[in-house]
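From the pipeline queue, job 12 of 40. The input is one protein chain; the requested action is below.

Action: predict structure.
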Amino acid sequence: MSRTVLEWDPSDLESVREACHQARRQFTQLRAEIGRVIVGQQQVVDETLVALFAGGHVLLEGVPGLGKTLLVRTIAEALELDFARIQFTPDVMPADVTGTTLVVEHESRRQREIVFRPGPIFHQLVLADEINRATPKSQSALLEAMQERTVTTGGETRSLPDPFFVLATQNPVEQEGTYPLPEAQLDRFLFKVEVPGVGREDLNEILSRTTGESSPAARPQLDGEFLLSARRLMRDAIVAPHVQDYAIRLVLATHPSHPTFSESLERYVNLGSSPRGAQSLVTASKVLAVADGRYAASIDDIRRVAPAALRHRLGLTFEAGTDGVSGTDLVMSLIRDVPVEAPMDDEAPRGSEEAA
């Protein structure tokens, strides 16, 4: 396992290039190790790893039995991160997530002491399993942790470990007894990753690996310190003005009130992406670039991460549900509609021509 951290001098092009190559090697090695355990689902693995190296949280959506929980546990083993699982049900209380304050009596000293007992949220990698089965009150216990990396209980604010990630799962089909995640909570996930079903060959390989005497387990490849140094390197990656402008125009084109609102979205979108959507696009594209051995993000990187970064940040209308149109469909349509080159008059307000 790599116990080293990435080191580079931003003013020394050669040291930056070497750090990028090292990050790429370690990223590729990590993907391969996870592939020893997870059959297929390469896009799911890649998107999840990109989000983690970007320092963000991930919402994994898929029907039961597709290996979502196994993926999260495997990543924790490969990165040697402190792992905890919260199985959400309607009776889970906020204190079951964040922890609680107890009064402990010491018989020998004949005195009482107020002690805080940390909840599972005080781990580096937290699996929030079936998060939409928790009540809104329990879901809200994650909001501060996901955004501020702190937990406030009993009037005291406590810091969470670094790195800290929440990987949540939800079932898109079974809706009975569930509480849909509010927009504020969805927005705190850097990516929403859709987990598809498996094909014939992958299912055959799954059976071969899992119905024998033992199943493969991931071996530690990296650690939290390397992950933090890689994150710093990736955040320092270059984003050219025209690339950042493309990300901005993608996000603005999701807003019904903006003059560049995409016509293909008019029937299906009533709420556009927040600024976090643009942040996610740029941050994730930097990770993708460095993982590919480059130190500058491209428009193609923005396009590759756009579905995972934006699909859960669009407020869909009733017509979208009845027509079977998903957030992914709309993001792909958006990518086709928004030009790479910025039109000179794309900021002209609607109706300005008539007013003139």
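Job complete. The chain has two domains: 1-92+121-236, 238-339.
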